[in-house]
Design a protein that fits this description.
- This protein is of the alpha/beta class and 660 residues long.
- The protein is 40% helix and 17% strand.
- The chain is built from 22 helices and 20 strands.
- A 7-stranded mixed β-sheet has the order 13-12-11-10-9-8-15.
- Helix 10 packs parallel to helix 11 and helix 11 packs antiparallel against helix 16.
- The radius of gyration is 30 Å and the shape is elongated.
- The mean pLDDT is 95.
Length: 660
Amino acid sequence: MKDFFNPYAHGFVRLAVATPLVRVGDPQYNLDATLELMRRAARDKVLLAVFPELGLSAYSCEDLFHQQALLDGAEDALQSLLVKTRQLRLAALVGLPVALDGRLFNCAALVCQGRLVGVVPKIYLPNYREFYEGRQFTPGDAARESEIELAGQRAPFGTDLIFRLAEQRDFVLHVEICEDLWVPAPPSSYASLAGATVIANLSASNIVIGKEGYRHQLVANQSARCLAAYLYSAAGQGESTTDLAWDGHALIYENGTLLAESRRFAAEPQLAFADVDLGRLQADRMRQNTFGGAALRHRAEVERFRSIEFSLPLPAGKLLLARRVEKFPYVPSDAANRSLRCEEVYRIQVEGLATRMRATGAKKLVIGVSGGLDSTHALIVCARAMDELKLPRRNILAYTMPGFATSTRTKNQAWQLMRAVGAAAEEIDIRPSCMQMLKDIGHPYAKGKKVYDIAFENVQAGERTSHLFRLANRHGGFVVGTGDLSELALGWSTYGVGDHMSHYNVNASVPKTLIQYIIAWVAESDEFSADVQRALRRVLETDISPELIPGKQKTESSVGPYELQDFHLYYTLRFGYAPTKVAYLCWNAWRHKYSLGRIRKWLGVFLKRFFQLSQYKRSAIPNAPKVGSGGSLSPRGDWRAPSDGNADAWLRNLAEVPAK
């Protein structure tokens, strides 16, 4: 793949918000300050830089805006900017006052390599509290002209413009100015329905107590509602402090997520940039069918937009991604958020199980406990569900069922945990029944030969589940499943009468990496006694293994490291990314631990197992509560796929990933 190590090759665009230091009423000074930051942005391979409202004149000029010298000076500054940036590989949005037909408009000008691409006037003019813009300016939608002569060029003019980049068709830009965002129905709401993926806001926005947090809320929510990137750049130092103060607050959000932010109250020019994932935005729009429905409902507003195409070569060559890629996409990196996530998932699981018990009238639960991660987590969910229903924990019928390769450690852990939570605990040795089945099917192991094939493994897994179902019949309960989302994705379960099946599975949409953190969270909380907490910590220290074959059998040596496979699952399931992009993101997140070659190897294993080998298992899975937007694999929920599909298209795409 050409330019694999370049974010632009994977649907990212580098966007910046800039806050120069200005001088009130001095366009030449402000031109120089703007040029300095534009050149800096170009060196950083930025595609678009957004500057504050009326930045070429300064915002706080008040009645100076009616002085011809200032208006001429601002236009001259724009003309100089166009001349001086002809060789600059960068587009920029700059603000200036523009006189047209006896009216004055507060405008944003899109400039790109010496071309004035278009001019957008502000629609909503605040005339309340400290604002008095209605005194100087006219609302943009009052303009009669659709083109303008400005700075020596003729360009499209109006509030109905969206700008499309020829070199990256997913980059579609809409511009609004400050107050346009603060109204009940911002213009960007309709522009996004018309295809805009990037919204830029040139703002002045003085600072008062609490406004910084409110800006975050506005920008985050609008970017999320529009499924778009939102760039907000507010005026900073140099604006008049006659009655106001300014903090130079600039933000970049992508679908509700903060990517970059300027340092407020800075005494030097600020440039903050991030790589925005246009592919993520388009993927979300494609899946969220109500987005298209809204475009249909608001067809009149959508169809009024004019598309203006412009050209700008994309940066080539190696370029580090200017964006943090979390190693564990299912697990927040921030400790406080991680704790909240663990608690939320745990509560959802408990509520799902408790609700099913109420609906069925069941008073007892049957569960197999191996001493490993998944059954441990399912057991503590069962215990808390019993507490919620005010039933005794002795109604949890917990069984540990050692087989031919069960270790002393995991068996002891299972006993410690079952006793600690207060379940009715028993041990059933499945080896005699397994040996009988091995004899019945003529397996070499029954004749003393050390043959440890898939039949040998699945006889044990099947015997365990078969026992649990019959125990549920015997005692009037139902079987709680323990298999997790990661195992479902990889097909790492024994189909039918095996760990694939249960009456209700509390773990089915929780990935392995998150289960580890939830158990750790429970172990540190006051949910259970100290005995339970100690047992949980021992489980966390144990290697992940099915313990079906004598010797050291490690799951991750067969299916790959779960930390990688959960990463691959998230971006494949949540966004539908091509393997090349998944590998690129994984390399950015994990390159200090895994080589690109190893990432490619295990991604290949994931693709083969996920798309070709395992769907028939997922097409017939028990009920389970969905816990997160990362998706579930239920055929009744997030994932409907053919059981007889193949992985060829994905593997061909993966082949484009370089070996190193």
